[in-house]
């Protein structure tokens, strides 16, 4: 049956008379089409999707591709392809939006280090702000790691960061290193499992079809599934019922105290469910503890030892408000919250757990622990920029000037400075501002 | 007289559902412990107040359901219908899709004006179904965006459209350690606005009810449903029919009006707290016996010592001796001064009960006559399976500390300007915040100086 939950991400199209059939709003599922736009300046990846098991889910009219790619050059993606495909993108966006009863949010999913995702991706971000100013823009960005094989990834990332700073409502940074660590951890758990404990296959945060694939050198499928689960959990309360609903616009409202500080560190637990462990409450509390541990964060960061500006906990499954309260009380003393938001917790309870689990938790933190990621990015950028390495590839593009670079690094530096200022308040004396005096 | 309930937001709708459930299950029960005539009179009075009949004979709640997203209302409507004993009208709800994003400004400045006509239309229709409209009962939380912001707007609209009707706002105060990060902002904005348009605010605090669930009801894994059911029980114990002192032989015909008259003598003091006794798991009821003197002794001490429930009461706190000069610090810290109190007794042997201890002038401020400061409503008809039960609605310093705490936290956040851009985006400026802070500091000051 096609219901509200499905309708959040899919249209139900009557394809009996061909692909251009009308939408069916209620009733049986005919053909589900993703409310999505796939953009790539190369064809390889998109073609693979169109030949894979999800080929019917993506409408051919929802694709924008080219052949030559962006050469890992942000400027090519943003300036050249942006200009070239602008109209096409706007038109397709409008079409997709028209099929929505009530459009609340765009999810932009891309990487920062390359040319298309980074350059064209941030161009699209700008477009969305212009064309649909009232719709929230959530961006899931994969940040490059230190050993990234794309030499120019620091340039691309910093240029993209400026766009994210100015045009995104919320950014969820992801680092491949963290995803890889999680995948390895799960692999270890499955293969060298402790006696008597087996992992429920369909409960893996890395599995999509309930099959644990054998580990490859760079297991991108498994890693990507983690991010997919992140987005599922993020939207679960908007799709399913619960005793304390948490919508996407509430996430932005509660976790972004100042417009530019909108980078949220995410963690997902549990990573897997042991099939025969039957101690529900201990498992539950362990789940909360894990959410704050370094190993479960999706970027290389340790929120516990940095400063929290705000924290959100989205719980799914058979968890009640008392479980939530008990764990918040338990964990609060070991966490550092900024002085003006000592009780800064946003909570949501969704009744429906993810497949294969009895409960799960997504933690989103606005925490100064993102700072090291940005500082490293800046350092890698400066290493190249000082020597003007590869700069000509960018400056030769129409519309690109030296100032693009200086503005971008300045934007990043300012952001780092904002986090520095906040960190400086950590552990300091708490002076509450004096209250308004009323004439009696 | 009938009361129209307006359920606002997720909290308002979830609680509203439990309230009508509790009222319905109470009148359907065979535990009235009174004469058949009395019971029938009670049932008729409750039905007139809260329900109307439709062709199928199933009682239809006199309620309007409002929310900015569809899931909760949809659940509420179907749960009621499934009970088979009562239901909501299928034409009395209004919802949208996008929610309010926990943003008071969004609820008040955007959704409010945009949907005013549609919502007030529904309220008008419900009001017209009443033979005599006794007033409005709105249910909302103040932490979120819809109940709080849209709720404040709707309250104002109700006041404008029905200037002579009584309006009681039931406001749920969130857990201290956060359900919503901007809850203190939303609370300050809500309370200050409601203070200007509502007749009285009847308050429930999640922290308090949670403790009742944990310690008195012995619930292990407390859910919001559990909390809401305790709240519904407490509200039912106030709003089910009673005989007022001078009201003759029939059940009171103007419950909201009577409530306002007895409890809100001065517009500066509108905050009402609620306590009840006894409160225990249903399974323990057959093994418990109650005596009125015992119940009332506890209830009085709960009032004086500002205890939240019948366990853990501080018996050391005493009212000041008349004529002695009271050090103000002592008074502020320990003894809860009242402006007015209302005690509601339900059950066996209710007519002979001595309530003199509640009329002690030392409990009250000096500027009201003690006879006017205290009132009692009674009915021999037992409520919700409790052979004897007593509720206390109090206009006193009950809520002073929690209010002060909320305003303090909000002010702390406001000083750093955190989150303000989220509000100014929808038209609520810093000056608006300052006005609200001023209003509430005034209320705090007034209650402190009782």
Automatic annotation (TrEMBL), chain A:
It is found in: Cytoplasm, Cytoskeleton, Microtubule organizing center, Centrosome. GO terms for molecular function: GTP binding. SUPFAM superfamilies: Tubulin C-terminal domain-like, Tubulin nucleotide-binding domain-like. Its cofactor is Mg(2+). Signal peptide: none annotated. One of its GO terms (cellular component) is centrosome. Residues 20-242 form the Tubulin/FtsZ GTPase domain. CDD domains: epsilon_tubulin. Keywords: Cytoplasm, Cytoskeleton, GTP-binding, Microtubule, Nucleotide-binding. Residues 244-379 form the Tubulin/FtsZ 2-layer sandwich domain. GO terms for biological process: microtubule-based process. It comes from the Eukaryota. Belongs to the tubulin family. Found in a complex with TEDC1, TEDC2, TUBE1 and TUBD1. This is Tubulin epsilon chain. It comes from Ficedula albicollis (Collared flycatcher). The gene is TUBE1.
TrEMBL record, chain B:
Residues 47-246 form the Tubulin/FtsZ GTPase domain. It is found in: Cell projection, Cilium; Cytoplasm, Cytoskeleton, Microtubule organizing center, Centrosome, Centriole; Nucleus. GO terms for cellular component: centriole; cilium; cytosol; microtubule; nucleoplasm. Its cofactor is Mg(2+). Pfam families: Tubulin. GO terms for molecular function: GTP binding; structural constituent of cytoskeleton. The keyword Nucleotide-binding applies. Its main location: other. One of its GO terms (biological process) is positive regulation of smoothened signaling pathway. Dimer of alpha and beta chains. A typical microtubule is a hollow water-filled tube with an outer diameter of 25 nm and an inner diameter of 15 nM. Alpha-beta heterodimers associate head-to-tail to form protofilaments running lengthwise along the microtubule wall with the beta-tubulin subunit facing the microtubule plus end conferring a structural polarity. Microtubules usually have 13 protofilaments but different protofilament numbers can be found in some organisms and specialized cells. PANTHER family: TUBULIN. Acts as a positive regulator of hedgehog signaling and regulates ciliary function. Belongs to the tubulin family. This is Tubulin delta chain. The gene is TUBD1.
